[in-house]
Structures are given as structure tokens and as C-alpha cells.
Write the C-alpha cells for this entry.
Amino acid sequence: MKIMANSESKRASHRSSSSRAAGTHQRRTRLIQILGVALAFSLLINLLIAIALGNYSRKASLLSGVSDSLRLQLSDSAEQLARNALQLKTLENEIKELTLNRLPGLTGLHYDEVLNIDKLYVKNIVFTRTGKKGARVYEYKVVLDNHDSALQPAFKIVLFDRSGVQVGMSELSHDTVNGGMTRLDQDEVRVHYSMVPLADIAEPEYFQVILL
């Protein structure tokens, strides 16, 4: 009877040990599975990050190339613009030189500046441009300063464009009925105001004072 009890106790102890071993094995298996899933997930994330970094690198390289190309184009455009401006300035100077050589009595017209004339009794003149584009009015103020004996002043103000073509004229005539001065005494200073009618869209760049 005692032998049977010992045998039963051994079998129970063996079953308990087997049960504990099986539980430990199952826990290890589950842990390995969890670690495997975590590792796979980590590898997937790293792969996605690597792909994203590769795409970013390619895009950055493309953008860098585009940026360099744009900088070169802008540099070329700026250089071309500078060359064109220089050529335009040279052409304008050549036209000016040809015009002044063909008509040596012309003077450059600058607005709202005192332009010295010093031609007998005509001392200086100031031109003013008023109105708006397409309806310009060109006015002038001329200072008369007579150092000789008394006289009746008379002159023409003629305007020319950049090519030397006459585009307008104003006259102070001897005809006192139409606004002419009757007399300018010796050492007398007077101011004459008037305007110059111009052809449509004309843009004067030179003028000439002609005494009558």
C-alpha cells in the first residue's frame, strides 16, 4: 500500500514538472513571435524611411539642378540686358551727334531748368511740360535783358525732336496787335511767357532761339 502511494506521488510530480516545462516553452515561443513581429515592423519602418530619404535626395538634387540652371539663365539675362542698354546708349549718342552736326544751332531741352542763351537781349529760358500723356502743353518763360539802346524784341522759339525734325514753334513778333512788345529799353529786364503748340505725339528734345 505504501509502495503504491509513493508511485502515485512520483507520477503527480512528473506531471507537474511536465506542465511547468510546457508553460515555459509556450511563453518562450510567444515571446519569440512578438520579437519577430517587432523586428519585422522595425525593418519595414526603416525601409520606408530609406525610400523616403532616397526620394527626398533625388528631389533635392533635381531642385538644385533647376536652381543652378535658373541662376545661370538670370545671369545671362542680366548680362544681355546690360549689353542692350549699352548699345542703346551708344545709338542714342550717335543719333544726338549726327543731329547736332547737321543742325549746329540746337540746344538740348531740359524741363524746369534755367537754360542760358545769352544771345543779345535773350538771357535765359525755362521750359515746363504740363498736362497728361496725349495732351501735353509745352510752356516757356524767357528772360529779356537789354544792355544796348532801346529796341523792339522779336524772336522765334523752335522745338525739334531727337532726329532734328521741327515739331513746334512759338513766335514773339513785331506785331504789337498780336501780343508783341512795343519796346525794351536799355538796361531793362522783362519776362515773356508763352507756349509752343506741338504736333500730336511729338516729343521735343532740342530747341533753338532765332532773333528776328
